[in-house]
C-alpha cells in the first residue's frame, strides 16, 4: 500500500499514482497545464499561490502545486519511496 505525500498547504497525493514531478516554467509544462485544464484533468492545489510544480498522475490528471519540484522530490526521498522505486528498476535488469 502506498503512502500519501504532502504537496503543500494540507494537500496530499497518493505516491503510487505519481508518474512525474516537473517544473511548469517550460513550454511543454505550460502546454501540459493548458491541455489538462481544457480537458478537465487539472487539480489546483496551490491555494491561490503561484504554481511552481506539476505532478503528473498515472490516470492523466495534472496536480498543480505551490511547492518546487525539488521540495516534492525531497519529500518522496524522506518517505523512502525513491528507494523502493530504485529497487523495482533494478529488478528489470
Offer a concise description of the structure.
With 93 residues, this protein is an alpha+beta fold. The protein is built from three helices and six strands.
Number of helices, counting only DSSP H or I runs of 4 residues or more: 3
**Largest sheet at a glance?**
4 strands, mixed
Class by alpha and beta content? alpha+beta
SSE succession: EEEHEEEHH
Mean pLDDT, nearest integer?
Answer: 89
Number of strands: 6
Low-confidence stretches: 86-93
Structure, described:
With 93 residues, the chain is α+β, with helices and mostly antiparallel strands. It is built from three helices and six strands; from the N terminus they run βββαβββαα. It has helices at residues 27-39, 69-79, 81-91, and strands at residues 4-8, 11-14, 18-22, 42-44, 53-57, 62-65. The chain has a four-stranded mixed β-sheet. The chain has a two-stranded antiparallel sheet with strand order 1-2. The longest helix has 13 residues, at 27-39. It is globular. The chain starts with a strand and ends with a helix.
Amino acid at each position: 500500500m502506498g503512502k500519501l505525500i504532502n504537496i503543500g498547504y494540507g494537500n496530499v497525493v497518493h505516491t503510487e499514482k505519481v508518474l512525474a514531478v516537473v517544473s511548469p516554467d517550460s513550454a511543454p509544462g505550460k502546454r501540459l497545464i493548458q491541455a489538462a485544464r481544457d480537458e478537465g484533468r487539472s487539480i489546483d492545489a496551490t491555494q491561490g499561490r503561484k504554481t511552481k510544480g506539476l505532478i503528473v498522475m498515472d490516470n492523466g490528471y495534472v496536480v498543480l502545486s505551490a511547492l518546487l519540484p525539488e521540495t516534492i522530490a525531497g519529500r518522496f526521498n524522506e518517505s523512502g519511496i525513491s528507494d523502493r522505486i530504485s529497487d523495482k528498476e533494478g529488478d528489470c535488469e
